[in-house]
Amino acid sequence: MSEGTLLEIRGLEVVFDGFRAINGVDLTVGEGELRFLIGPNGAGKTTLIDVITGLTRPAAGTVRFGGTELTGRKEHRIVRLGIGRTFQTSVVFEELTVLENLDLAVSFRRPLVSLFRQRRGVSDTVASVLDTIGLGELADRPAGVLSHGQRQWLEIGMLIAQQPRLLLLDEPVAGMSQDERERTGELLTEIAKDHTVVVVEHDMEFLRRYASQVTVLHEGTVLVEGDVATVQKDPRVQEVYLGR
Ligand code: ADP
């Protein structure tokens, strides 16, 4: 694994009942990168994230994270190694406040004994996360009252509160208003200053504005990889992804 590489996937294959959903993927993500993963429906994007996070076992290939082989490890061990992900379905606790959701996320990282200690206000970590996700004014409101966009930001906040080295975000702007998309783009840019982030997204307008490095998946293989302008101009991408 070369210096500066955080995630290195080689020769990955995933087979579901004889169907090859991932068919020989190589992917390298450097420390500190903000990488976008795009591709038409069924390209294998979510499956790839599922493999990295230990939810799906590959039929072949290796996934190395900071030099540690991940394949065969259990999900919770992979979380402990510093990989956090969001899901397309929400995982916030609706009856708990924004603050309590963040506190809970932080507590996943703390040694068990500290959970029993007396609480002394908002921790520095939570305060800084609240600031980053822009939900400071809603800190004491139940998460159930948040808009769709705010809830997504809270989920991202819950991830960064756990201080992962790698964040995997699955379609973070799906279903968001234009204004929420812009705020999410700014949030990702901010987070990427001190995290490595892989974002699954297929909103082209969003990519044009916020992506630099893009990997295009198609039928379980990497079709093209490069900067967003080059990738968009590639005739293979236009054909399979934009349908032109
Ligand atoms: P994407 O996220 O790019 O839309 P997915 O990774 O969800 O694509 O799916 C890739 C392919 O694998 C699709 O054809 C999908 O139907 C198939 N697939 C995904 N998960 C399963 C599963 N658990 N069992 C069978 N087929 C699956």
Supply the key terms.
33% helix; 244 residues; binds adenosine-5'-diphosphate; four-stranded antiparallel sheet; 9 helices; alpha/beta; single chain; Rossmann fold
The proportion of residues in beta strands is 25-35%
The geometry reads as globular
Pairing-aware structural class of the strands and helices?
alpha/beta
Q: What's the tally of helices?
A: 9
**Order of the strands making up the biggest sheet:** 6-7-8-3-9-10
User: What would CATH call the class?
Assistant: Alpha Beta
CATH topology: Rossmann fold
Mean pLDDT: 90
Order of helices and strands: EEEHEEHEHHHEHEHEEHH
Named CATH architecture: 3-Layer(aba) Sandwich
Name the CATH homologous superfamily: P-loop containing nucleotide triphosphate hydrolases
Q: Give the total of beta strands.
A: 10
Q: Count structural domains.
A: 1
Largest sheet: 6 strands, mixed
Stretches with pLDDT under 50, minimum 5 residues? none
Taking the alpha carbons of the first and last residues, their distance comes to 38 Å
What is the C-alpha radius of gyration, as a whole number of Å? 18 Å
Can you list the ligands bound to this structure? adenosine-5'-diphosphate
Fraction of residues in H or I helices: 25-40%
Domain ABC transporter: 7-244
GO molecular function: ATP binding; ATP hydrolysis activity
Pfam family, one: ABC_tran
InterPro entries: AAA+_ATPase (IPR003593), ABC_AA/LPS_Transport (IPR051120), ABC_transporter-like_ATP-bd (IPR003439), ABC_transptr_urea_ATP-bd_UrtD (IPR017781), BCA_ABC_TP_C (IPR032823), P-loop_NTPase (IPR027417)
